[in-house]
Design a protein that fits this description.
Blueprint: E1 6-11, H1 23-26, H2 31-42, E2 46-51, H3 55-68, E3 71-75, H4 84-91, E4 97-101, E5 123-126, H5 131-149
Parallel strand pairs: 1-2, 1-3, 3-4, 4-5
The structure holds 3-dehydroshikimate (DHK).
Amino acid sequence: MPGTLTLYVLNGPNLNLLGVREPEVYGRETLADVQARCESAAGDARVVFRQTNHEGELIDWVQEAREQASALVINPAGYSHTSVALLDALKTLTIPVVECHLSNPAAREPFRHRSFVSPVATGVVSGFGPFSYELAVKAALNLVHDKASAPGRSHNA
Ligand code: DHK
């Protein structure tokens, strides 16, 4: 549909195992359940929802989002805490970027306290389980509308 916004929702390693992986931390919903939540939260916007276990593929998709998307929601999972390359890719974006986590990494092991992504994200949503994604989608779309009405504002400077 002409004029339809496109929102990318990208997921990093091991999130394909949602529902069976450490359910006490990540819950029992599957990634398909999370996708359905995102699509519902996005309303009329088109959602491109993907998961990969490979850092390079995640970076390829971030670069694709740079060309194709109005906003990006990203749960980089373990790469949040390790990937300078992902940070560099995200720095090339001018669209709103919302970092999203199911758990609250700040309340977990010390190695999860540092995120390479947070400094270049417009905002971060974490700790609400699958509902984090709904909040992140709503926030991302809000930022797009905000940006449309405030030309020249940079969300990721
Ligand atoms: C998911 C992961 O796989 C972890 O590596 C992060 C994040 C937290 C989440 O809560 O969604 O530390």
